[in-house]
Amino acid sequence: EIALANGFVEKQSWQWLNATTENVRSLRNSSVDVVMSLLSWGFHYPISTYAQSVHEVLRPDGRLIIHLRGNKGQEDELRRFGFTCSTVVTSPGAHKRFQGKTALYVCRAESATHRT
Fold this sequence. Notes:
Layout: H1 2-5, H2 21-25, E1 32-37, E2 40-45, H3 51-57, E3 58-69, H4 74-80, E4 83-91, E5 102-109
């Protein structure tokens, strides 16, 4: 919303989606540049909930930006679904609601497993 309000992105090129599995799957394969989930997927929903669908809709050069709980094996699970991730920021449990380390990751879907 901030990016839209500041003119960083054009409204017609940005789409918010209520990320039910059905809504994610309704997007065309390889049609999405960025998927972002902060304090939701990986916190309240297992990685397996959306991983395959997100992998399918991301463009080959697209990115997944996801905030995960640390030490839960979630990065390994993303890797099993064909994502390669880099840690951008780690937090030593600063969020009171979620005890323990959390981290923000930027991931890309490996093109070898992309469906066309």
